Amino acid sequence: MKLLFVNAIDSSKNIETVYPPLGLAYLSAVLKEHFKDIQILIVDRDIEAVLKSFSPDVVGVSAVSQNYGRAIAVGKLCKSLKIPVFIGGVHITLLPESLSSVFDFGVFGEAELTIIDIIEFLSRKQSVLDLSGIEAIKGLILHTNNGIKLTEKRPLIENLDSIPFPDRDLLNIPIGKSTYLFTSRGCPYKCTFCASTKFWDNVRWFSAEYVVKEIEEIIKKYKPSSISFYDDLFIANVARLEKIVDLLCAKGINKKVEFGFACRANLVNDRLIKIIKPLKISMVCMGLESGCQRTLTYLKGPGVTVEQNRRAVELFAKANINAQATFIIGSPQESEAEILETLDFIKKSKLKIFEVYTLTPFPGTLIWEAAKKMEVVSDHMDWSKLAVDAHDFDNSISLSSVKPERLAELYGLFEKEKKRRKTFYFFSNTLRRFIRDPIWMLKKIYYFYKSSIIK
Known about the structure:
By secondary structure, this protein is α/β, with parallel strands linked by helices. It has helices spanning 14-17, 22-34, 47-54, 68-80, 90-94, 112-124, 196-200, 208-222, 238-250, 270-276, 293-300, 306-318, 336-348, 366-373, 404-436, 438-454, and strands at residues 2-7, 39-43, 58-62, 85-88, 105-107, 140-144, 147-150, 178-181, 184-185, 204-205, 226-229, 258-263, 280-289, 323-329, 353-358.
């Protein structure tokens, strides 16, 4: 059996290529563990050429909502070459009714066990185009004469440690100085703009021993200088966090690489700072979302306050830990004055770096349901309008009561503040480095001058 996984992304955008698709790498790992004679490739570009050179028996596509149109294009290409094709991932899981007719079927939810059943099923067939009886497999989305049908839901994997480490060697994006891993699945919180809770159902954790063993493998094979824990909320299980840090310190790994992770302001306290302090931390990223309490409550619920946001930033600054944050503007009924409250919060904070996004309604979120009622989204739409890095305020989907042209101006104010801070901290950090190590600075100037002369 030859299987091609396609990560349907816009490979020209750095934001989409910076992290290789570990979800597909997990699937590859379990398949190679289960089947000794399977051949697998994972690609995100030159798809037509790979289809013709590799000649897969079946193609599996993964896509987030903003790239679902790209996934459909891959499906059409497979159909033209008479190759069976299916789709999985977050979009089709959260919006199965959007399953395009170009796909033979879809996979919803956690897929490690489902993909084994799919390959076993196809291997028994004289032709992979014969899908009769596939409805017996749990976790599938099927086309029927009566519309879209979901087969029985597959139970979640209870012991995440039973899953082999992702097959990173198969990823076509080189693992460089910075890489990442997952140490859990799911999130204990339910923000209105996030679909993680609906996708994963509940929170499960890889054990501390499993996590540290995977980190050891990453360091041995790829030698990164920085590793990010890409969980929804890495610090949520404090006892496990403490054990992970203890193990990293016992093995001396805390001195070999830097670590980064996501955090939540209401969980930041002196105990957390003490636990993570032994690590070399490149950055901690918090979704602070707003400096206006009404907007913050709308986005994250009543459990977080602006004061907690402020205190979290101050605690990290006091501990000399690089804290970054994300903010969201453009919520329904959020006024211009409330948006400016967030800008004022940022200006008064000790944040070095921050990012600001306009509220985007993704399937599976409460915001999506609100957007459907406003009739600005549907189950069949131009999915590229959900691209989070695009800020075409006249054409992108907006839930804001503020007019697009004014929202664009307000967004520009945040961007101006972001550039000002980046410039300030670049020069201040350079000055501090020069004071500590003047030889380093002289070498930098020399190499810059030399490269300029060569050009």
